[in-house]
Amino acid sequence: MLPKGKLPVVVIACQVLEEMLDRLLPEHGRSVSQVTFMDYGLHRVPSKMAGTLQEALGKVEEPSLIVLGYGLCGNGLMGLKAGKHTLLVPRTDDCIALLLGSYKAYRHEFATVPGTYYLSKGWLEAGSHPLSEYEEYLPKYGPKEAMWIMDMQYQNYERLMLVTHTPADLVEYRPAAQQVARFCERWEMRYEERVGSDAYVRQLVEAAMALSQGEELSQAARRDFIVIPPGSEIHQDQFIR
Amino acid sequence: MSDILEQVSTAIIEGDLDEIVDLTEDALDEDLGAEEILNGGLMAGMDYVGVEFKAGNMFVPEVLRSARAMKMSMEILNPLLVESGVQMMGKVLLGTVKGDLHDIGKNLVGMMCEGAGFTVKDLGKDITPEEFVEAVKEFGPDVLGMSALLTTTMRTMESTIKVLEEAGVRDKVKVMIGGAPVTQAFADQIGADGYASNAASAAELAKQLVSQA
């Protein structure tokens, strides 16, 4: 059962959504009581994600509607307990759907070329991409060995895709993305660009506002979002569409 | 453990290519049997790598290097093992299901299984149920490992198991599954024999499944 009445809204999200949420949340003024952005690197060790997020949840004192700006993230969210809070989570495997603008858009891209490596403004700024990975291995292993490690991981990828939310960002981040693309040419990965949309994240914020006011989610919203009532926890099967 | 086996094991853990071939030959020169070197040196090293990887103390590059060192040593030992009629662990067939590419994890599973003494055949990515059936018939694996990266493609594992049943080969192999969104509950639900959350556990699971057969 969802709690009756109004709940304060708290956002706990991955840094990759920071720019979008920073822009979208103020539209709802004071209704959001707290926003925390978590480190990009959290998804690299999914087994430690739930623990770290549980800790962040534990710091929220008042029973709240907690918006989680995450996907299932390699089962990283599995086992996260709502406790006294209500949780709202996008029903998606990972953040790519949130960057592209919808789950459908992600499915389309995945079905077209499953072996796609995605780049976003956030990932480029955080240095999370194959080129920076190579540069990280270089001093430790030397050029030949570092490249072998890269080959072993990426040789079957086919496409590198830069996803931004505005055409202006595309222009701004293109040089950095193309630098990564040139590096990835050794695996014959082709470079593509998409102007994604903030629609999915916008719907997330709207769903949060509705729930916090004690309103029900629309049928469409129930397809795209998971609501975890107090006392329950997140399971993997909730993410299966 | 003898000094030389300890050195072999350390070279595996460190992924030391310069040393591993010489050390393997040194061990043979000391009259150690190929099986003894495999168990006491190579597998001892890979077991350690598996534990440290699972614990998050070793990472993908290190595991790749260890697995490659293992492979180089095995190239020397394999003919001797075959000659002396040593029973290998068995055969593992791997593949990522249709519509999916889950390469890094699956490749590591292959390497860790080789490290555990299995003969491994990797079909690669985007494998249709029919291709799996064909490969099971041809290769005759003890264990079939399937992986998927997304909740959407994960379901193809279920249909692949159904096609294996229809083709009458399901009871010839143990099926293990893995990949980012996969869970034990899902494995149970679709009638797989096991699930592993990482490459080291997958090799362990393969050993367990073979001993059950």
Characteristic key phrases:
heterodimer; A: alpha/beta; 2 domains; five-stranded mixed sheet; 8 strands; globular; B: alpha/beta; Rossmann fold; 9 helices; 61% helix
Topology:
The complex is a heterodimer of chains A (241) and B (213).
Chain A: E1 9-14, H1 18-24, E2 32-38, H2 46-58, E3 65-69, E4 86-90, H3 96-100, H4 103-112, E5 116-120, H5 121-126, H6 130-141, H7 143-154, E6 159-164, H8 167-184, E7 190-195, H9 199-212, H10 219-224, E8 225-228
Parallel strand pairs in A: 1-2, 1-3, 3-4, 5-6, 6-7
Antiparallel strand pairs in A: 4-8
Chain B: H1 3-13, H2 17-29, H3 34-54, H4 60-83, E1 90-96, H5 103-115, E2 118-122, H6 129-139, E3 143-147, H7 151-166, E4 174-178, H8 184-190, E5 194-195, H9 199-212
Parallel strand pairs in B: 1-2, 1-3, 3-4, 4-5
Helix pairs in contact in B: 1-2, 1-3, 2-4, 3-4, 4-5, 5-9, 6-7
Descriptive overview:
The complex is a heterodimer of chains A (241) and B (213). Chain A folds into two domains: 9-95 and 198-239; 103-195, no CATH class. Helix content of chain A is 43%, strand content 18%. Chain A contains ten helices and eight strands. In chain A, the strands form two sheets. In chain A, strands 2-1-3-4-8 form a five-stranded mixed beta sheet, sandwiched between helices. In chain A, helix 1 (18-24) links the parallel strand 1 (9-14) and strand 2. In chain A, helix 6 (130-141) packs antiparallel against helix 7 (143-154). The model of chain A has no long low-confidence stretch (mean pLDDT 92). In chain B, helix 7 links the parallel strand 3 and strand 4. In chain B, helix 1 (3-13) crosses helix 3 (34-54), helix 3 (34-54) packs antiparallel against helix 4 (60-83) and helix 6 (129-139) crosses helix 7. Chain B has two domains: 3-83, Orthogonal Bundle (Methyltransferase, Methionine Synthase (B12-binding Domains), Chain A, domain 1), CATH 1.10.1240; 90-212, Rossmann fold. Chain B has helices spanning 3-13, 17-29, 34-54, 60-83, 103-115, 129-139, 151-166, 184-190, 199-212, and strands spanning 90-96, 118-122, 143-147, 174-178, 194-195. Chain B contains nine helices and five strands. Chain B has 213 residues and is of the alpha/beta class. A five-stranded parallel beta sheet of chain B has the order 2-1-3-4-5, with helices on both faces.
